[in-house]
From TrEMBL:
Gene source species: Sphingomonas lycopersici
Protein name as catalogued: Peptide chain release factor 3
Keyword Cytoplasm: yes
Keywords linked to the UniProt accession: Cytoplasm, GTP-binding, Nucleotide-binding, Protein biosynthesis
Main location, first listed in the record: cytoplasm
Pfam families named among the record's database cross-references: EF-G_D2 (PF22042), GTP_EFTU (PF00009), RF3_C (PF16658)
Gene from which the chain derives: prfC
NCBIfam families noted in UniProt: prfC, PRK00741.1, small_GTP
Gene Ontology cellular-component terms listed: cytosol
Highest taxon of the lineage: Bacteria
GO molecular function, one term: GTP binding
InterPro entries: EF-G-like_DII, EFG_III/V, G_TR_CS, P-loop_NTPase, PrfC, RF3_C, RF3_dom_3_sf, RF3_GTP-bd
């Protein structure tokens, strides 16, 4: 009998403490064995989930990582996502592969712009959310103010599950509202070391706050939470170990098991016998020594067994999956079996791409993994012209990963890359040098944005192409793309050619 699965992501604005919380969840779950292993000295001074060179240099997450661990008979698949808005595409695709999410909020800052954007993505996909208000050991806004903001800005009912006893300099622990016990800080570092006051005497001010909160906010309701109408809220400090254990327990108790996934011709439920899954991420060079290339597949139905043959939608030829991988960030082990909700890695040499469906039969296709129109376009300038072939390989690899998009102009030989955010350009240049030994720079492109073009009227599309050839390109799949100098030009041209569709997204 397989253990229950909880496949979840952690989302937040940058600097809300997401990476620290990830580490502590792994520690509580027994996946790492040293508190502080993530912040260790020397070569290990980086988060376990941040393995890329630029991540270690800048202290940020720029790629999604997968970490699997087991706690109390439940298997948790934790998908860490980039907090920085420049990597929203990678985050969006990751959120297609999860059944729930933990939203981390800074107690001093409340709801921030990226938090709100990521929440909207979760709402679009009906992904239920547990909220963790972090850094209550520092000075912050009142618990009531934070709860009201979550309720108002995100249009959610809030159900406080724990309550901070003081904040910042007056912080004396976190009250569990169900068990009515306080986790107390100990030692010079004032961390949680296991001291729980089972019969706490609360200061009058705190008791009044708690009574008001219990009267004014919703009770936790598992069905309302799973429907996306309510968020259980936990207060704590990931750095000081207040909250991670309660979060894991909440995910085990409330978070949904693997859910049905949108697909054509019909949604696929986890109870179906045939093995199906979809690729939501591709990562090259996780192991630079072997120049590997891994497709991350969310298993949606059936029991996967090592060595079985699956057919990808991309080319229709069955492939035997001989070395499927279970992940712990950059570390890995061979998976003999996997179940719905699990994330497995499939080593391949360019046969699998983001958006591919894999199944025992080729008659199904999972939907909802779009490409987004880039907001920044640049030309790549090689410093060594003899490296053209290596550059093409590198750009193709990173386009498959979703790091960048590549456009090949109809006129002219300079390839154009498109990204959603500036930081993606820094990642591109860093990885070209570190992984492909290609030194390159970026030059301005004469265009500002791109749109995929199509039409039900072949003559109208042909007329548009002939007149606007100097502004046309093909993406790496050969789809026609209109390169525009501004968003205004997109609108102007769209008005002139009403029979041509200008799409800001394209289904993969």
């Amino acid at each position: 009998m397989t253990s229950p699965r909880r496949t979840f992501a952690i989302i937040s604005h940058p600097d809300a403490g997401k990476t620290t919380l990830t580490e502590k969840l792994l520690y509580v779950g027994g996946a790492i064995h040293l508190a502080g292993e993530v912040k260790a000295r020397g070569a290990n001074r980086r988060a376990r989930s941040d393995w890329m060179k630029i991540e270690q240099q800048r202290g940020i997450s720029v790629t999604s990582s997968v970490m699997t661990f087991e706690k109390d008979g439940v298997t948790f698949n934790l998908l860490d996502t980039p907090g920085h808005e420049d990597f929203s595409e990678d985050t969006y695709r990751t959120l297609t592969a999860v059944d729930s999410a933990v939203m981390v909020i800074d107690a001093a800052r409340g709801i921030e712009s990226q938090t709100r954007k990521l929440f909207e993505v979760c709402r679009l996909r009906s992904v239920p959310i547990i909220t963790f208000v972090n850094k209550v050991d520092r000075e912050g806004r009142s618990a009531f103010e934070l709860l009201d903001e979550i309720a108002d800005v995100l249009a959610l009912d809030v159900a406080p599950m724990t309550w901070p006893v003081g904040m910042g300099g007056t912080f004396e622990g976190v009250l569990d509202l169900k068990r009515w016990s306080i986790s107390r800080p100990e030692g010079d570092s004032r961390t949680f070391q296991g001291k729980v006051d089972a019969e706490p005497i609360l200061p009058d001010e705190v008791r009044e706050e708690v009574e008001l909160a219990q009267a004014g906010y919703a009770e936790v309701d598992a069905e309302a939470y799973r429907n996306g109408d309510l968020t259980p809220v936990y207060f704590g400090s990931a750095l000081k170990d207040f909250g991670p254990a309660e979060l894991i327990a909440a995910l085990a108790q409330y978070a949904p098991p693997p859910r049905a996934q949108p697909a054509e011709p019909a949604p696929i439920g986890p109870e179906e016998k045939e093995v199906t899954g979809f690729v939501f991420k591709v990562q090259a060079n996780m192991d630079p020594q072997h120049r590997d290339r891994i497709a991350f597949m969310r298993l949606c139905s059936g029991t996967f067994k090592r060595g079985m043959k699956l057919t990808p939608t991309g080319h229709g030829k069955p492939i035997a999956v001989h070395s499927p991988i279970l992940f712990f960030a950059q570390d890995r082990e061979i998976a003999d079996e996997a179940y719905p909700g699990d994330i497995i890695g499939i080593p391949n040499h360019g046969t699998l791409r983001v958006g591919d469906t894999l199944s025992e039969r080729a008659a199904v296709r999972f939907t909802g993994l779009p490409n987004f129109a880039p907001e920044i376009l640049r030309r790549v300038a090689l410093k060594d012209p003899t490296k053209t072939k290596q550059l093409r390989k590198a750009l193709d690899d990173m386009a498959e990963e979703g790091v960048t998009q590549v456009f090949y102009p109809e006129i002219g030989s300079n390839w154009i890359i498109g990204v959603v955010g500036q930081l993606q350009l820094d990642v591109l240049i860093s990885r070209l040098e570190a992984e492909y030994k290609v030194a390159a720079g970026l030059e301005p492109a004469p265009f500002d944005t791109a749109r995929w073009i199509s039409s039900d009227d072949a003559a109208a599309l042909k007329e548009f192409v002939e007149i606007n050839r100097s502004a046309l390109a093909k993406d790496r799949d050969g789809n026609p793309v209109f390169l525009a100098k501004s968003a205004w030009e997109v609108g102007y041209v769209a008005d002139r050619y009403p029979k041509v569709k200008f799409a800001a997204t394209r289904e993969r």
